[in-house]
Amino acid sequence: MEIRSTTEKDLGVFADTIHAAFGRFRAPSAEDSGDWLSALEMERSLLALTADGRPVGTAGAYSFELTLPGEIVVPAAGVTAVGVLPSHRRQGVLSALMRRQLEELRARGESLAVLLASEAVIYGRFGYGPATYTRHLKVQRHRSALALPRARGTAAAAETGSVELLRRAECGAILEEVYDRYRRQQPGALSRPHRWWSSGAGQPPVSKTPRYLAVHRDADGVPDGYASYSTGEPPGTLTVDEVITTGDAVFTTLARFVLGHDLITQVVFKHFPPGHPLRWQLADFRAGQVSDHTDWLWVRLLDIPRALTARGWSAEGEIVLDIDDPFLGEHSRYLLTVRDGKAGCVPTDREPDLSLDVSDLGSVYLGGTAPSTLVRAGHIRAHHPGAAALADSLFRGDRPPHCLHWF
Question: Which residue range or ranges hold the N-acetyltransferase domain (predicted)?
Answer without folding.
Answer: 1-153
